[in-house]
Amino acid sequence: MTKTSATKSSLHQAPFTDGKAAEAHYEDTVPADAYKLSPGAGPAGPGSLKTPGNTNDKLKDMAPFRADGDGMGLTTNLGVKMAHNQNTLKAGSRGPSLLEDFHFHEKLSHFDSERIPERVVHARGTGAHGYFQVYESLAEYTKADFLQDPKARTPVFIRISTVQGFRGSPDTVRDIRGFAVKLYTREGNFDLVGNDTPVFFIQDAIKFPDFVHAVKPEPHNEVPQGQSAHDSFWDYVSLQPETLHNVMWHMSDRGIPRSLRMIEGFGIHTYRLVNAEGKSCFVRFHWKPIYGTSSLIWDEAQVLTGRDPDFHRRDLWQAIEEGDYPEFELGLQIIPEEDEHKFDFDILDATKLIPEALVPVKIVGKMVLNRNPDNFFAETEQVAFCPANIVPGIDFSDDPLLQGRVFSYVDTQRHRLGGPNFNELPINRPLSPVRNQQRDGRYRLQIDVTANYEPNSISGNWPREVPEAKKNGGFATYPQKSEGKKVRERSPSFADYFSQPRLFWLSQTKPEQRHIVDAFSFELGKVGRPYIRERIVDLLTHVDHDLAKAVAANLGIALSAEQLSRKLPKPVNGLEKDPALSLYAQGKQVVKSRRVALLVADGVSGKSVEDVCKALKSEGVHPQILAPHMGVVVSEEGKEIMVDGAIDGTPSVLVDAVIFPDGEQSLKMLEKNGAAKYCLRQAYKHLKPLGLVGEAKRMLKAAGLSEDSQDAGLVLESDAQKLMKPFIEAMKQHRIWAREDKAKDVAA
Ligand code: HDE
To answer: Which atom of ligand 1 is closest in space to residue 413's alpha carbon?
Structure first.
């Protein structure tokens, strides 16, 4: 507080509250080296040890809170060393427990309070640390400090979640994924709390509790968990056509991503950017994954809920540990203020996207996730995101959904994290210092020593307002003109509910369209009340007749001539299709970081295994050697090969593709191994690339499958070297969609 006393004399020249006080004293709001990377060893702790060199300012900031117990004696919460921790204090070894056992009381009562309320939505999530770096200065659009310097790295923490299920629900359920990013900028925290779809279910925040009650499990029996396939959700959708656009995304392959590294993130709402000259434009934020966008097959997603309910969080964790750092590029759709009304829809409506074909996404920077949390509870569970957390250079629009979110998140954090001081938790603390007149409350950590009111003359009126400035000034709301009657009304410009669902539908590839039909049919098949199913199919007749007919046929619903002659909505600003809305219309997928199972047994051709592994590794793909047992197998050349997993414990749903290397003895054993045959059959059904080296093609017959020279994903070659090129090409397709019809005929 030396600055405080040094400035006391300036008190009388500086007005207390007009925001124009002498600028010279504000430099402590921005630590000079806040973004600097600290290469080399970071603070001790499991995270930093596993990923050396991977330290940044957020890690340093959290260091004082990280407790490493290695080599330390056991203590009570007040640091008293304890000589015993296995038996309660008793009167005799068979006698009653004694009330004076303070250690027991403390241990149990702390344990009894270990759980905090889970998030009312997005309860199931997984987090990661990393950094964001802008490619070039965005000064033209915004004065936000973290978007200026391409050399600066801003620490980030991200949490990706499912919406519907509870904390322990499985990862691969059909759901929207939350995509919440906290950027610890030098000007304070900026939270971009988005989803993996560019639109939301409702237009106005006041509807949110109703929507959430409808989608959460049914109130009487709390069924189903992690699913929207139940009456109340579809009842709500059928009565609120504004939900339909997001429902289309939800029913599409986006609802079952292959990996959390392979989803797009969207800020959804229109925000504002404001530059140093005070000029503003509208913006929509996008995160584009470097690892491509790909999904699971629905059956695979369901199998995974049992085989590995942690599939997504494990994948994210493993990728970071293995150095396949998930990366997402930040993209901006910039809309000049004067273009606000040039679209067929309202840019303030969160159920509408701005087609990329109309406003291209400008890629401006990259987020790299390079460090796993050290402690799930302290970081991933206690992190508190809030759309109200913005920084100078960014501002809200009048989107009525966004406006409501600005209130709701802080409110929920106070309840969930036990009071008003949750921003002092290490994971939530900004890197920039916090000084104001707010005081006290539960679990206050900061020990404030300046006056607790403003204006004051006791502490020289510090801390005081920071004037708005071109650079590093205080936040001031963009002076947008706003006048109108007080009304509870929806703007008529929000009224079109069907044009964008149609654009989405028409932009999908054929396999994606089939999957949408299947998903609607599956979900509605779980709805008990026939009139709800009928209302949904009726809604679909407003989107596309083929879609409605296909779903109706699966549900045994007859559509009337009137329903099938409904006028369909016109293209959005003349746009019939936008490939950006499809996962697969945009070409090949990224194979790096994917996993391929090699099924082997004793007597496998060591050369075949070696050649396959070498080719996979050169593409950054991880081979997984699976055998009937753990330990090692001995190759036909007499060499030991380490086994990564047992075949029956590592089903094909955990990998992207399967290879059977050559080797007479090995194949003889695998032909008789039910788990190996099941693996091949299941991978075939899930449209995965299959590689069979030399004699391994016999496995097809053993598994009840047949050769098919038309199937580009069924790669049969005499030796491993020849096999790998077409095999990798097949992997770039992600899944062999052309096999889908044939695979349907194969029993599971
Ligand atoms: Fe949320 N939302 N939301 N939401 N939301 C929450 O905040 C809310 C909305 C989103 O990983 C809650 O901390 C309202 C849109 C994510 O911790 C709660 C409205 C979008 C997360 C809440 C919305 C989201 C949340 C529950 C309508 C995408 C998880 C716990 C106005 C742009 C963040 C919590 C994390 C979490 C309220 C709508 C995304 C209750 C009132 C639109 C990713 O405050």
So the answer is: 13
